[in-house]
# Entry
Amino acid sequence: MHKKGIKAAFISVFFTVITVLSGCEPLLVLDPKGPQAERQASDILLSIGIMSIIVIVVFALLVYMLVKYRASKQKADYEPPHIEGNLWVEVIMVGIPVLIVAFLSYVSVQSNYIVEAKPKGYEDTKPLVVYASSSDWKWHFSYPEEGIETVNYLYIPTDRALEFRLYSYGPITSFWIPQLGGQKYAMSDMVTTLHLAADAPGEFMGRNANFSGKGFAENTFNVTAMSQEDFDDWVKEVKETAKPITEKKFEELLEPGHLGRQTYTGTHLEFSPPPTGHEHSEESSETETNTESHTGHEGMSH
# Structure
């Protein structure tokens, strides 16, 4: 009866797990739509594969030890044999974990340099520069070269390098579009640079991945990737239909609270420039110089 109860409990747990998992959507980080995200997804899968092998081997050894060295009836005067340490066993137990950690460290460092640079295949192209600033609890996207600004939504062209310059008008936030790349912090006293690209058109989710107060859960934004022609048409439409952003209006937008999607001509960079600190990178030096003419902010040069 006891064995039947255990078997029934195991079957119940198994089917419960299967039922729950069947309703889950695919993980966004494992559904990449850009070169940076593809690199990170491959690293995640590699780590999962290595850890899975380790877990399977450990559990197989555990079952083997439990079966082979399980308790058995012995004489009252039985004494187990004296066993000295085995050099090869100790080398394997120490050496294999060291090799695994060293390999994953090498892959991680190599990937870090790759995702911090311009996306692969876009090294010689001029990126689209977007200043992404956060406030409680919304995102402001300024397109200095296009002369427009959006709130809580982002339009980007496909097959073109994207250079996001991040900073915050409040607490530290984290800019993250899982299907395009990893997160990066936006801070109030410096500008950080994030390089991304979208290989295919589509709708993506973006959010603040760093807790920043009671409105954190809804601190999200929508990302729409489209062809360069459609992007140019959208920019033209915005310039013809949207109202200009003013300093007074921008101050209202900075007030804590949630807003829907909003669109303006001009950018707040003209009267509320970004912090003077900036990550130095060779890839962004050219676009930095071009953007100064739009922002009028001399302190942004390296």
Confidence is low (pLDDT under 50) at residues 280-302.
